[in-house]
Design a protein that fits this description.
Blueprint (H helix, E strand, L loop, with lengths): L1 H13 L4 H14 L3 E2 L13 E6 L3 E7 L8 E7 L4 E12 L3 E9 L12 E11 L2 E8 L33 E3 L7 H10 L6 E10 L4 E3 L5 E4 L2 H16 L6 E7 L16 H12 L4 H9 L2 E5 L2 E2 L21 E4 L10 H14 L3 E4 L11 H6 L5 E6 L1 E3 L6 E4 L2 H13 L2 E5 L2 E5 L1
Parallel strand pairs: 1-2, 4-13, 4-14, 14-18, 15-19, 16-17
Antiparallel strand pairs: 2-3, 3-13, 5-6, 6-9, 7-8, 7-10, 11-12, 12-20, 16-18, 19-20, 21-22
Length: 438
Amino acid sequence: MYQKTAKEMTAFLKKCPTAFHAVDLIGKELVSSGYERLWEHQEWEIKPGGKYYVTRNDSSIIAFAVGTQISDHYFRIAASHSDFPTFKIKENAELEVKKKYLQLNTEGYGGMICSAWFDRPLSVAGRVVVKEQDHFTTKLVNVDRDLVMIPSLAIHMNRAVNDGYAYNKQIDLLPLFGGQESKKGDFKKLIAEAAGVPAASVYGSDLYLYNRQEPSVWGVQEEFISAQHLDDLQCAYASLRGFLEGRQESGVNVYVCFDNEEVGSGTKQGAGSTFLYDTLRRIHLGLGKPEETYYQAVAGSLMLSADNAHAVHPNHPEKTDVENCVYMNEGIVIKSHAGQKYTSDAVSIALFRDICEKADVPVQFFANRSDEAGGSTLGNISSAKVSLNAVDIGLPQLAMHSAYETAGIKDTCYMIQAMKQFFSTMIREKNGDIYLCS
């Protein structure tokens, strides 16, 4: 089971070199499962028992399945994110070096481990906006071959490289694109060819580097899996599987995958936007519900914010809390933080633990060392727009924000099982008490 799931997930990851590709692939999976696409600029017709999805910016997506029993109205929400640290290609992309090399001009997106990007086969993918007569259309592009590389400076020329060298993204991390036979204009021509259009018709682009290295299952018991952007497409994939496999006729199941978590979520398609709020409101209004019952529905809802967590590092166990630390292949992580970097509290933790017990899935607890500043995620950000019970969870991994990350082969299956149980669970609230039943 674990090997089969790992193979399916890595096939998914390989098709998702950017957030745009991830959302496009998720949309195709939804369509094949009977979901109907909606557009934000059009009127929605929502019916009991219906299955729908909507995107924003082509890089965030929300899918929802409406139960047949809409008199008991609330939301079960699982949220993850589609983006990951990488390098974005600047508009004027080509840099000439002594008329012998052609580089690509890039800037960092998110907090990556810079050293992991050196000496690997890389390529470019994203989207372009094309003018066709009197309208503009968006096309996905992926130059599906080893295209560029960021070469290291030899240790003979940088003796301090192993002594805490500070990388400069404008100098050290520019990818090499071509040699002396290359010329300015080649990059735009290549991207236009990948899109199947003339170069002059490309009016805008969002293009990124991605790692071409193949995913790998390894370890003495083949217990580990390494791949690009496990954070957070591992959770996005597992949540989607659980969403499609789970079903509860009471309430509304909601799958969310936001963009831009790695840069603060403060965009029109991020967790800090109105995307989730707008969608939940439109579902509510589309079902003919009065204003008052929307607030009742949200108050009785539960959200799982799924984003990966730091496993204990074998070389640096001192970097994690003594007791609230987690290990790969030992279950889903529940994350807590006194300063509310994570949205988990006693109520949401208790509810999720019960769901995992019913799914026969192990759980672990993570908190940062008290003298270390940890990262944040989308749970508390989205809760500022839609206030409901929410718990931050994830899967344990090593080398977070590297170009090649490592996780446990069992944990994807655990997340799928827990998500399936969650989306099949009925939620009831009465006089301050919450009841969960399948």
